[in-house]
Amino acid sequence: MAELPAKVTIMKGATPDLSAATYQIHDETHTIGNALRWMLMKNPKVEFCGYSAPHPSENVINVRIQMYDNLSSLSALITALSDLDDLAVTIEEEYVASLKSGDYERWDERS
């Protein structure tokens, strides 16, 4: 059986202290790329963050992170992923609570 690639790969050209690095994230698209970029840019210690999808036929995104003060971009990435997960949980909880309360506008096809 073939080995699966790691979910996240550090690309060539990263600084030794990882204060600037490009991470390739496998099996992800613009959906997570844009949300992750947004979450990373909320961190005031992140100097730059951008992402790209190299080609539509490749199911990967590349995320470039550059930090102030030689801080670790890997730590920032892990924190942003955790924060994004927390946000998704909060949204789901609020959505389920709203559905259970029944306090929402209903659409009637007959109108």
From TrEMBL:
Q: Which UniProt keywords apply?
A: DNA-directed RNA polymerase, Nucleus, Transcription
The GO annotation for biological process reads:
transcription by RNA polymerase III; transcription elongation by RNA polymerase I
Give the primary localization class.
nucleus
Example GO CC term: the record gives: RNA polymerase I complex
Read off the Gene3D superfamilies from this record. RNA polymerase, RBP11-like subunit (3.30.1360.10)
Question: CDD domains of this UniProt entry?
Answer: RNAP_I_III_AC19
Pfam families recorded for this chain?
RNA_pol_L_2 (PF13656)
* Entry-linked PROSITE patterns: RNA_POL_L_13KD
Q: Name one GO molecular function term.
A: DNA binding
Q: Does the keyword Transcription apply?
A: yes
Q: What is the superkingdom listed in this entry's lineage?
A: Eukaryota
Location of this chain's protein in the cell: Nucleus
Residues in DNA-directed RNA polymerase RBP11-like dimerisation domain copies: 20-93
Kindly indicate whether the keyword Nucleus belongs to this entry: yes
Q: What family is reported?
A: Belongs to the archaeal Rpo11/eukaryotic RPB11/RPC19 RNA polymerase subunit family.
What protein name applies here? RBP11-like subunits of RNA polymerase
- Recorded source organism is Roridomyces roridus
